[in-house]
Design brief:
With 243 residues, the chain is mainly alpha-helical. The protein has a single domain, classed as Orthogonal Bundle (Farnesyl Diphosphate Synthase), CATH 1.10.600.10. It contains 11 helices and no strands. The two termini are 13 Å apart. Helices cover 72% and strands 0% of the residues. This is Heptaprenyl diphosphate synthase. Pfam families: HEPPP_synt_1.
């Protein structure tokens, strides 16, 4: 599959996810829900690489997309001004998308996935609390927690459906992209801006993680070259350069 094929597949997934989470009142009051294209691409990575993809996997991927959207909405809530009308609408929108997540999961007779995702969501919330209230002193420990926040649900999806060989990519890629974006974006718009390291440490860790990812990609025998190229592009330029 070429780059256009990847783009079309990700676009199709995002369209299906928007249909699954759509609710007119939420759309009217809270606006268009943000969908993280980077997470969608990595969630679909096995399918884009030619792995067998069943209806159950598709439904599970939509459920995970819904909870990712719920997390992203809730992450925008300002705890110092949570009583404003706009903030309250964001809380309700996030809760709505979380409800859609459980509704989609309920349609899948896979209790292992339901349990594992529940554990992953709990772990994500624990990591967020730690990062916001008592972040570890070392950058390495912080990056590990950030990686868990971003990748936990995707990794559980991989475990459930036998795609574990892809885990080594996402567990490095997410903290790497966070570091890249910490130097590219307005800190007020990124997750955990208070944890952004200084420029020297950022450069050091970006180089280290890029080398780690390069080794993992170039030593694998399963990921097709166009996908390797896309992942490397993300690792060097951030999620804004995603297909």
């Amino acid at each position: 599959m070429d780059t256009k094929g990847f783009t079309d597949q990700v676009d199709n997934y995002i369209q299906n996810l928007r249909s699954a989470i759509y609710q007119p009142i939420v759309e009217r009051d809270a606006g268009h829900a943000p969908i993280d294209r980077q997470k969608a691409f990595l969630l679909l990575l096995p399918m884009l690489n030619g792995e067998s993809w069943t209806d159950e996997m598709h439904q599970a991927s939509l459920a995970i997309g819904a909870i990712h959207t719920a997390f992203d909405i809730h992450d925008q809530i300002d705890s110092t001004d949570a009583s404003s009308k706009e903030q309250q609408l964001m809380v309700l929108a996030g809760d709505h998308f979380s409800g859609i997540h459980y509704k989609l999961l309920a349609s899948i007779p896979n209790f292992h996935l339901i349990r594992s995702l529940s554990v992953a969501i709990g772990r994500i919330n624990e990591c967020k609390t730690t990062l916001l209230q008592e972040p570890p002193n070392s950058i390495e420990d912080r990056l590990q927690l950030i990686g868990e926040v971003e990748s936990a649900c995707i990794i559980e999806f991989y475990h459930t459906f036998g795609f574990t060989r892809y885990i080594s990519i996402v567990e490095v890629l997410f903290p790497l992209i966070w570091l890249i974006e910490s130097g590219q974006q307005d800190l007020n718009r990124m997750k955990f801006p208070h944890l952004a390291p200084n420029a020297r440490d950022t450069e050091k860790w970006i180089q280290q993680l890029q080398e780690n990812l390069d080794d993992r990609l170039h030593n694998n025998f399963y990921l097709h070259k166009p996908l390797v190229d896309q992942v490397l592009k993300m690792a060097k330029q951030g999620a804004s350069k995603l297909i």
